[in-house]
Design brief:
heterodimer; A: mainly alpha; globular; B: 277 residues; alpha+beta; Thrombin, subunit H; 2 domains
C-alpha cells in the first residue's frame, strides 16, 4: 500500500516536472506558468493534513531543487512550509465544496511565493523583492484557476457516475 | 512522551530548515559543475523532456497556425472593410475632383463672359422623366432672379433656355428639344438658319432653312445669331457634321453635333442679363 502510494506520488512528480518544463511553457499567461508541483503539495496538504503536506513538500521540493540545480533547498524549504501551512488551513475549512481547495490553492501559492522571495532576500540573493510580487500573485491566480477547473471536472464526473449508478 | 516527541519534531524541523538554508547559501552562486546527484536527475529527465518538448512544439505550431489562420481571417475581413471604406472615400473624392474641374471651367467661362453677361450658376437636379421632352430641372428659381426664356449655357456652349420657373427651381428646355429652336448661323460664313432638335432619342441637331447654294461645309462652327431676342449673339452651339439637300430641292439642311454633352450636364450657367454687346 505504501509502495503504491510512493509510486503514485513519484509518477505524479515526474509527470509534473516534465509538463512544467515542456508543455506549460506554451500556456503562459501574463508571463507565468502554473506551478503543478506546488499545486500537488497544496491539494495533498489540504486534504491530508500538515504533517503529510510538510513531508511531501520537502520531498518534492528537494527533488525539484536537484533537477533545477540552483539554490538547492529553497523549494524544499518553502514547499515544506507551504505544505505545513495549508495542512493547518485545511483543518479549518470545509472540504466538500469547490471553493475551499480553490482558496487553499490561492493562499498556498501566495505563501510559497512570498516565502521564496523572503528567504532568498534574507540570504542576500535578491536585491529588489518587490519586483517579484506581481509574478507571485499571477501564479497564485493561475494555480487557483487550475484547481477550480480540476475540481469542476471531478465534480462533473462524480455526478455522472452517481447518475449512472442511480439509473441502474 | 508525547511532549518529547513534539520537541523532537520541532528540533528536527529546525535542523532541516537550517541545513536547507546552508545548502541554499552554498548552491546559490554559479557553480562550474553540478554534483553527481543533480547530474543524475538532469540526465534522467533530459530524454523525456526532449521528447515531450518536441511533441509540444509540434502541437504548439499546429495551434499557432490555426490561431494565425483565424487572426489572418479576421484581419482579412477588417482589411476588406477598410478597402470598401477607402473605395467609397475615393469615389467621393473623385466626384469632388470632377466637380471641381467642371466648376473651374464654369468659373473660367464666367470670367470670360462676365464682361458681356450677368451669369448665375445652377446645379442640375433633375431631368424630364418622359422620353418625349428634352428638359432638365435646375436648383435656381424665381428667388434667384431667374426668369422665363433666359438662356442657359455650360462651359462648352449653349444648353437651352428657361421654360418655366418656380420659387427655387427652373425647368430648362434644351436645344435638342423640337420646341427649343434657336436662331443660329455658321460662324465662318455668317449663313443664317434655325437650329432645332432631331428628335427625342438623339442629341443631334439640325440647321434648317439653309439656301441650296449656301456655303456650308463639314466642321464649320454654328453659333447663335441673336435673332429672335431670346439668345444673345455668338454663343457656341456645335459643328456641322453633314450637309443634306431638302426634298424640295430648294433648301438644304446641316446636321449639327452639339458641343454640349447633354447627358452629362451637372452644372450650368444662366445668363440673367446681357450688357455691352
Amino acid at each position: 500500500m505504501i509502495m503504491h502510494r510512493l509510486a503514485f506520488y513519484g509518477i505524479l512528480f515526474l509527470a509534473s516536472v516534465v509538463l512544467q518544463s515542456t508543455l506549460f511553457h506554451f500556456f503562459k499567461i501574463c508571463g507565468v506558468k502554473p506551478d503543478l508541483i506546488l499545486l500537488i503539495v497544496i491539494i495533498s496538504s489540504f486534504f491530508r493534513g500538515e504533517k503529510f503536506g510538510a513531508a511531501l513538500g520537502f520531498v518534492y521540493g528537494i527533488f525539484e531543487d536537484l533537477i533545477v540545480g540552483r539554490y538547492i533547498g529553497i523549494q524544499a524549504l518553502t514547499k515544506m512550509a507551504t505544505g505545513y501551512a495549508v495542512g493547518i488551513l485545511g483543518k479549518k475549512l470545509f472540504h466538500d465544496n469547490l471553493i475551499s481547495p480553490t482558496i487553499a490553492a490561492f493562499i498556498g501559492s501566495l505563501i510559497h511565493g512570498f516565502l521564496y522571495i523572503i528567504v532568498l532576500f534574507c540570504l542576500g540573493f535578491y536585491s529588489n523583492p518587490f519586483r517579484s510580487f506581481f509574478p507571485v500573485i499571477n501564479v497564485a491566480f493561475y494555480n487557483m484557476l487550475i484547481t477550480l477547473a480540476v475540481f469542476l471536472v471531478q465534480l462533473y464526473s462524480s455526478k455522472r457516475k452517481l447518475f449512472r449508478t442511480l439509473g441502474r | 512522551m508525547r511532549r518529547l516527541s513534539k520537541y523532537k519534531t520541532f528540533f528536527l524541523t529546525v535542523v532541516v530548515a537550517l541545513a536547507l538554508i546552508s545548502l541554499i547559501k552554498y548552491t546559490g552562486f554559479e557553480r562550474p559543475f553540478l554534483n553527481s546527484t543533480e547530474a543524475f536527475f538532469r540526465e534522467l529527465l533530459a530524454p523525456v523532456q526532449g521528447a515531450v518538448m518536441k511533441a509540444a512544439s509540434k502541437v504548439d505550431s499546429f495551434f499557432n497556425a490555426a490561431f494565425s489562420f483565424m487572426k489572418l481571417r479576421s484581419e482579412n475581413e477588417r482589411l476588406k472593410k477598410v478597402i470598401e471604406d477607402l473605395k467609397e472615400e475615393n469615389a467621393v473624392l473623385k466626384e469632388y475632383r470632377e466637380e471641381n474641374i467642371r466648376l473651374k471651367r464654369l468659373l473660367d467661362l464666367k470670367e470670360t463672359l462676365n464682361e458681356h453677361y450677368s451669369l448665375t450658376a445652377a446645379r442640375v437636379i433633375g431631368r424630364n422623366p418622359e422620353n418625349w421632352y428634352s428638359t432638365l430641372t435646375i436648383d435656381k428659381g424665381f428667388r434667384d432672379g431667374i426668369r422665363k426664356n433666359m438662356p442657359v449655357i455650360s462651359d462648352r456652349g449653349l444648353v437651352g433656355r428657361i421654360a418655366s420657373v418656380s420659387a427655387n427651381t427652373s425647368e430648362v428646355l434644351l436645344i435638342t428639344d423640337r420646341e427649343g429652336a434657336v436662331a443660329a448661323m455658321i460662324q465662318q460664313t455668317r449663313t443664317p438658319g434655325v437650329v432645332e432638335g432631331l428628335g427625342p432619342n438623339t442629341d443631334e441637331l439640325q440647321l434648317i432653312h439653309l439656301p441650296y447654294d449656301a456655303p456650308v461645309g463639314k466642321n464649320q462652327v454654328v453659333i447663335t445669331s441673336g435673332l429672335g431676342g431670346v439668345f444673345p449673339k455668338g454663343l457656341r452651339i456645335g459643328y456641322v457634321k453633314g450637309v443634306y439637300p431638302e426634298a424640295n430641292g430648294l433648301m438644304k439642311r446641316a446636321v449639327i453635333e452639339p458641343f454640349v454633352d447633354f447627358d452629362r450636364l451637372e452644372e450650368v450657367m444662366i445668363i440673367t442679363g446681357v450688357e455691352n454687346l
